[in-house]
């Protein structure tokens, strides 16, 4: 490559936006703040498009392309650089992050307009873009880890954006702490890589991994690395057992939920696993673990999704479930299918969250779906776009989700029919709870209060400027991103027709497993396609029956299920179990042993006792200085007597 | 010739009388006199030792001649100076506190 692509511009532009808004935003007007945020994130998107154009029109494909800036760490033969790496995989991620990111920036201008900390929001959002793009473009694991931690920071800041609210502040902390557990595994994995390969550079590590034979016989070093990386991915991408932070992360503003906790950051784990596919492919056991975790998470989260009544919580569990699909895909070796689903999911889940934001905006901050209903006549555009997104996630052709989910299910079947079976059951549940959400929100009669009350304003989101009496459509600045994402959700899956997406990513995932499916025949594949569509339709039908035609039924069913329903409603008591098993012992242990025991009894007391002892002795000694001349004389005489006695004793002893 | 120990015992008795007087008397003047008694007890020892060492030929073994007696003169001079200063302080104390009882004079500040 003779001319540079100037990749560095893509992350640095949002960083500049964050810096300008962060330092000057407080005194700037809202218009100025949003202009800066939009210009810089838009410029990143424009440059990403330019890069794509350059790559696509080049005579010989310049990918993989590396761009070096500076040495970062040099220690003997071990070096880590500030350098960027671009291949088909990071290109897809790049477009998703800058594209969806820019749209959500536009949306946020409308959604956050009334927030007093307007500039702070955009500072964080741009900062997030910077870190996410660093994560994607890094050419080594350590730089990736910087991005990884950076998005964690941005996520923490944005979940706790309304930090005066206790629940938001603690949700932020929860997300941060749970992610630390994952990062611990990730870091250990990196240490192992350094120990064995003396490098963290993708190209160098993978070049050394390539000749290593697959660890089929027994679990070895690569399995350990794979599992540790998966621990990291579990934290970031909210998989069992570290998924608990994501539903709570919904305390953040809705655009944040859309951008960070649905479309981009949470997919970082999938990206990392896909990026490390050479390691995973040589560690079948680690790959199996990935597949099992993904499959179980998909099913588990989907079942919780059925019972939730908070519109954002439903979407959060749906996100966890869809991420499970992606890991299932990676686990069966279908990395490109996983990335494909990542992309389509970014479109439709981003859209769902933005739609949910629009709904929440419309009803004045209410998030409980039981107090919605009948909104289709009030907010037709939101209804339409949400409908498209729901069709996409449910897997109805030709919407985006159908193509990617079908690809995953097909590949899962080839690996192990059990994955497929659970995947199909999950697809059914997904379809059911998504249509349930759609019907509860938009169909039937409006169940909310006729006028909005400040009490409903749970998210600090005020619409006090015009006292509207009924739900209202969002402004154009929020609707346009919805429409664009709707188009993408509608058409985004078409890039996958005829395995084109597979072929595009083929240079990255050049593994034998990719072609295994071809032999099994197209007929089978169409049959499975039919099954998944049928299952999605079934979910739709069930949701229609339960929530539109016979809305009294769900209560009865819930009642007849009794304690099982209670368990699911309470999210299988996982939070409570974690609280009992980990949080409480830690807090208790810290309180009793570390704080009360060591800090207070040992450290504080030793210092206090030393000081107290000195004062006590001084108090006693002070009594000698009474000011009484004769007592002084007595002391002197006594002292002299002692000295004389001692000297006499010396003389006698000699 | 009176043996050395006689002088030392007498000096010790004088010194002990001084210490006892210092400890049990409350009047500053009496205490002052007790100090003089102690000093003279020491002086007696000085001259006794000096005479003794002179008698046994201490100068031949490097002893400086008359050093004991000279020390006694020093002590007398210092005691005289001390008496001058001390009596002045006593007068000052009496003027401010109207007492010479040391048990009532236990603070430096008024």
What does this structure look like?
The N and C termini of chain A lie far apart (99 Å). Chain A has a two-stranded antiparallel ribbon. Chain A is built from 26 helices and two strands. Chain A is 71% helix and 3% strand. With 654 residues, chain A is mostly helical. Mean pLDDT of chain A is 86; it is low at 451-468. By secondary structure, chain B is an all-alpha fold. Chain B has one domain (4-104): Helix Hairpins (Orthogonal Bundle), CATH 1.10.287. Helices cover 73% and strands 0% of the residues of chain B. Chain B contains three helices and no strands. Chain B has helices spanning 4-24, 28-55, 67-97. In chain B, helix 1 packs antiparallel against helix 2 and helix 2 runs antiparallel to helix 3. The longest helix of chain B is centred in the last third of the chain and has 31 residues, at 67-97. In chain B, 15% of the residues are buried. The mean pLDDT of chain B is 89. The chains are: A mainly alpha (654), B mainly alpha (110).
Put the structure in a nutshell.
The complex is a heterodimer of chains A (654) and B (110). Chain A is mainly alpha-helical.
Keywords:
heterodimer; A: 654 residues; mainly alpha; two-stranded antiparallel sheet; 71% helix; globular; B: 110 residues; Helix Hairpins; 3 helices; elongated
Indicate the topology.
The complex is a heterodimer of chains A (654) and B (110).
Chain A: H1 9-24, H2 30-57, E1 65-75, E2 78-86, H3 88-111, H4 118-137, H5 141-159, H6 166-197, H7 202-209, H8 221-236, H9 245-248, H10 254-263, H11 268-275, H12 277-281, H13 284-307, H14 311-331, H15 335-362, H16 380-394, H17 400-415, H18 417-442, H19 476-491, H20 500-505, H21 516-519, H22 522-549, H23 553-561, H24 563-569, H25 574-622, H26 629-653
Antiparallel strand pairs in A: 1-2
Helix pairs in contact in A: 1-2, 1-4, 2-3, 2-4, 3-4, 3-10, 3-15, 3-19, 4-5, 5-6, 5-10, 6-8, 8-11, 8-13, 10-15, 13-14, 13-18, 14-15, 14-17, 14-18, 15-16, 15-17, 15-19, 16-18, 16-19, 17-18, 17-22, 18-22
Chain B: H1 4-24, H2 28-55, H3 67-97
Helix pairs in contact in B: 1-2, 2-3
């Amino acid at each position: 490559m003779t001319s540079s692509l100037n990749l560095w511009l893509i992350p640095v532009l949002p960083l500049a936006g964050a810096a300008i808004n962060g330092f000057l935003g407080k005194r700037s007007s809202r218009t100025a703040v949003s202009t800066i945020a939009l210009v810089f994130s838009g410029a990143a998107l424009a440059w990403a498009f330019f890069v794509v154009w350059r790559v696509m029109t080049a005579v010989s494909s310049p990918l993989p392309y590396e761009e070096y800036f500076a040495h970062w760490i040099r220690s003997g033969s071990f070096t880590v650089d500030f350098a960027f790496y671009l291949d088909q995989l990071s290109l897809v991620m790049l477009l998703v992050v800058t594209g969806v990111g820019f749209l959500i920036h536009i949306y946020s201008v409308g959604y956050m307009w009334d927030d007093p900390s307007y500039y702070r929001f955009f500072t964080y959002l741009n900062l997030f873009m910077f870190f996410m793009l660093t994560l994607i473009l890094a050419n080594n694991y350590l730089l990736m880890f910087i991005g990884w931690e950076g998005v964690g920071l941005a996520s923490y800041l944005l979940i706790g954006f309304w930090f005066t609210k206790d629940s938001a502040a603690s949700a932020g902390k929860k997300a941060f702490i749970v992610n630390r557990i994952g990062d611990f595994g990730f870091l250990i994995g990196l240490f192992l890589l350094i120990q064995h390969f003396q490098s963290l550079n993708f190209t160098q590590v993978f070049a050394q991994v390539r000749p290593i034979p697959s660890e089929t016989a027994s679990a070895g070093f690569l399995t350990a690395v794979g599992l540790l990386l998966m621990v990291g991915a579990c934290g970031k991408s909210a998989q069992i057992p570290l998924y608990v932070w994501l539903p709570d992360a919904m305390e953040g503003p809705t655009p944040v939920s859309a951008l960070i906790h649905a479309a981009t950051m949470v997919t970082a784990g999938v990206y990392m696993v896909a990026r490390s596919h050479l390691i995973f492919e040589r560690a079948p056991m680690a790959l199996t673990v990935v597949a099992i975790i993904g499959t179980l998470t998909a099913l588990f989260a989907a079942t919780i999704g059925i019972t939730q009544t908070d519109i954002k919580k439903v979407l959060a569990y749906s996100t966890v479930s869809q991420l499970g699909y992606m890991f299932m895909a990676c686990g069966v070796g279908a990395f490109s299918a996983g990335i494909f689903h990542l992309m389509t999911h970014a479109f439709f889940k981003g859209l769902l969250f933005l739609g949910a934001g629009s709904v929440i905006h419309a009803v004045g901050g209410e998030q409980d779906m039981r107090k919605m209903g009948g909104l289709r006549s009030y907010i037709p555009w939101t209804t339409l776009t949400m409908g498209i997104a729901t069709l996409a996630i449910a897997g109805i052709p030709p919407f985006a989700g159908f193509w990617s989910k079908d690809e995953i299910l097909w590949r899962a079947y080839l690996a192990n029919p059990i994955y497929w079976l659970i995947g199909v059951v999950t697809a059914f549940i997904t379809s059911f709870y998504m249509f349930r959400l759609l019907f509860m929100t938009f169909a039937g009669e409006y169940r909310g209060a006729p006028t909005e009350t400040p009490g409903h304003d749970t998210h600090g989101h005020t619409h006090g400027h015009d006292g509207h009496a009924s739900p209202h459509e969002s402004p154009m600045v929020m609707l346009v991103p919805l429409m664009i994402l709707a188009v993408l959700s509608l058409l985004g899956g078409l890039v996958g027709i005829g395995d084109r997406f597979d072929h595009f990513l083929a240079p990255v995932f050049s593994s034998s497993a990719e072609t295994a499916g071809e032999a099994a025949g197209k007929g089978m594949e169409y049959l499975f396609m039919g099954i998944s569509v049928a299952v999605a339709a079934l979910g739709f039908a069930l949701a229609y029956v339960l929530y539109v035609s016979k809305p009294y039924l769900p209560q009865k069913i819930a009642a007849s299920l009794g304690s099982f329903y209670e368990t699911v409603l309470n999210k299988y008591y996982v939070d409570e179990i974690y609280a009992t098993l980990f949080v409480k012992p830690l807090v208790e242990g810290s309180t009793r042993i570390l704080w009360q025991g060591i800090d207070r009894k040992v450290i504080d007391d030793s210092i206090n006792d030393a000081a107290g002892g000195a004062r006590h002795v001084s108090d006693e000694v002070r009594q000698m200085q009474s000011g009484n001349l004769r007592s002084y004389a007595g002391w002197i005489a006594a002292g002299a007597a002692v000295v004389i006695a001692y000297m006499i004793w010396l003389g006698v002893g000699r | 010739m009176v043996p050395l120990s006689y002088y030392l015992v007498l000096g010790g008795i004088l010194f002990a009388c001084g210490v006892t007087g210092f400890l049990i008397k409350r009047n500053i003047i009496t205490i002052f006199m007790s100090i003089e008694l102690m000093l003279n007890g020491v002086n007696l020892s000085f001259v006794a030792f000096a005479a003794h060492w002179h008698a046994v030929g201490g100068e031949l073994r490097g002893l400086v001649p008359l050093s004991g007696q000279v020390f006694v003169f020093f002590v007398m001079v210092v005691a005289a100076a001390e008496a001058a200063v001390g009596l002045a302080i006593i007068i000052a104390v009496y003027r401010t506190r109207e007492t010479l009882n040391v048990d009532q004079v236990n603070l430096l500040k008024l």
